Amino acid sequence: MKLKVDRSALGFFGIAITFYVITQTLISLGVLNDFWMTLLRFGAVLAMVSLGLNLIYGFNGQFSLGQYGFYAIGAYSAADVTYRWTQLHSASGLVVLLLGVAFTGLFFLGVGNLLKRLPRMDTLSAFGLYVIGTILAGLLAVLLGKLFIPPITKLLLFIPEAIAAQIVFLFAVLLAGVLTAEVAFLFGLPVLALGSDYFGIATLGLTIIVKVLLDNSDTMFGFQEMKGARGMVGIPQLSSWFWVFLFLMLMILIARNLLHSSYGRAIISVREDEIAAKSMGIDVTHYKTLTFIMGSTFAGLAGGIYAHINGFLHPDIFNFIKSFDPLIIVVFGGLGSITGTIAAAFGIYMVLEGVLRLILPQGFETWRYVIYPMLLLVMMLLRPKGLFGTFEVPFLRQLLPPPLRKSPGSLENDHKVISPVLPTSEGG
User: Fold this and answer.
1) DSSP state for residue 313 in the 8-state scheme
2) Rounded to whole angstroms, how far apart are CA atoms 206 and 194?
3) Positive or negative, the Cα torsion across 164, 166, 172, 175?
4) Is 362 helix (H, G, I), strand (E, B) or coil?
5) Using one digit for the tens of pLDDT, what is the confidence trace for 92-130?
6) By the 8 A CB rule, do 149 and 91 touch?
7) Tally of CB atoms within 10 A around 44
8) What is the DSSP annotation of 364-410?
9) Nearest one of 128, 37, 135, 143 to 96, comparing CA atoms
10) Residues in Cβ contact with 162 at an 8 Å cutoff, skipping those fewer than 6 apart
11) What three-state secondary structure class fits 137?
12) 279 pLDDT band (50/70/90 cuts)?
């Protein structure tokens, strides 16, 4: 039995692992200082957020400006979990968030099964049922959390401190992603029926709402540790280069496998022609919802990673102006190109916050915000389809299946000429 090795996959993972090893070696030797290391991690996080938007906008055709809203939800929810553990030595945040997302998911399944029996229920009524289920799930998580918080805290305290912190961090990031997915599902129920421009305005409104709620998180919701508009401090800096690289690679692989599946072909067909997709029996609403949830989950996971890089969060980081950054990266790299999104995210962030900041004279650093849009303008004039267009590296490129090869016997049968049977003289 011969083991077939995909050369494109071997090359992709070989280059990725080599890049990680070289970077980690430079960090260990002190060649890459904290400044460039922070920029590299921020670039990777921005690539995660932009990759999620590329799924929504580049591959599915939904114009969205809500990525930074979900980015903020993921960042603050993960930060609250790790803050409570490292500063208060309590697993309350972890337990309540875990129970909350679990109960919410169960309520969503229950409401979904109920709606299948009531197919005539309108969208807003269904949305109301989901909201009631979410509120009940939150209350139930808080009540039952009081029973589970002490034993879980004692269990984690038995583990060495450094290992326990990494476990809590990993669960915090993953649960932040699940929470973001549930919020995206809830938000998408009444909004995904809107057209592209209206959908974009609605998602922009979500980003503004999230920012305002974070400004008042300490007074409205009682999260004193978030400190509202003053900014949250004391978050453990646990997002090492290993975790950042690992999550980026996982998101690339998930996006690649999704797009290469039958789901991915359906998602792209909705972008190309929604009416034609409907006529072919594709459930357009289902695939829009799926893509929106996946892209928002990427933003939530990226937010959880981002919160633990500098150890500080402020609502102004997630204002609606910043929500255009992933859109710029997706368009600059090329709509519908994973390779272009990753390259543009790293390139723009390293040039804007790294190269230009260093080469400009002292006192003229803000001029990078003039040079940067000028470069974008020139780029859009010269290459309207983006830096990479629709180009993908071989591993990420979707190849057509090879043609079916017939056996030699079948080829002979296909080319065999059947002569007509002529009547004999005897048969008249």
Assistant:
1) B
2) 14
3) negative
4) coil
5) 999 999 999 999 999 999 988 888 888 778 888 888 899
6) yes
7) 26
8) -GGGHHHHHHHHHHHHHHH-TT-SSTT---TTTSPPPPPPPPPPHHH
9) 143
10) none
11) helix
12) confident
The residues, any chain, with a CB within 8 Å of residue 258's CB and separated by 6 or more, are: 55, 264, 267, 294
**Rounded distance, CA 47 to CA 341, Å?**
7
How far is it, in rounded angstroms, from Cα 351 to Cα 287?
A: 36
Closest CA to 148 of 107, 104, 96, 105: 96
Task: Judge whether 69 and 318 are in contact, CB under 8 Å.
Answer: yes
- Map tokens 């990226």 to a residue: 302
| Paired residues of 232 in beta bridges | 313
Take residue 366 and report the two structure tokens written for it. Answer: 């803000």
Q: In which band, very low, low, confident or very high, does the pLDDT at 394 lie, cut at 50, 70 and 90?
A: confident
**Long-range contacts: 352-359, Cβ < 8 Å, 24+?**
353/39, 353/42, 354/35, 354/36, 354/39
User: What DSSP string runs through 160-204?
Assistant: -HHHHHHHHHHHHHHHHHHHHHHHHHHHHHHHTTS-HHHHHHHHH
**Hey, what long-range contacts does 261-270 have (CB within 8 A, 24 or more apart)?**
263/287, 263/290, 264/59, 264/398, 267/55, 267/59, 267/60, 267/291, 268/59, 268/60, 268/336, 270/60, 270/61
**174: buried, middle or exposed (CB in 10 Å: 19+, 13-18, 0-12)?**
middle
SS3 category, 96: helix
> Which tokens hold the place of 33?
């200082």
Ordered DSSP codes for 291-308: HHHHHHHHHHHHHHHHHT
* Exposure letters 57-66 (e unless 16+ CB within 10 A, then b): bbbbbbbbbb
Q: Residue 232: phi, psi to the nearest 5?
A: -95, 125
d(CA 64, CA 177): 18
3-state helix, strand, coil in the chain (%, to 5): 75, 0, 25
- DSSP H helical ranges for 118-160: 123-158
| Buried/exposed 243-282: b ≥16 CB within 10 Å, e otherwise | bbbebbbebbeebbebbeeebbebbbbbbeeeeebeeeeb
At 232-261, the pLDDT tens digits run 999 999 999 999 999 999 999 999 999 998
Q: What is the largest CA-CA distance in the chain?
A: 111
Helix (H, G, I), strand (E, B) or coil at 324: helix
The answer to whether the CB of 46 falls within 8 A of the CB of 250 is no
C-alpha 348/C-alpha 346 separation (Å) is 6
Let me know: does 51 contact 255? Beta carbons within 8 Å: yes
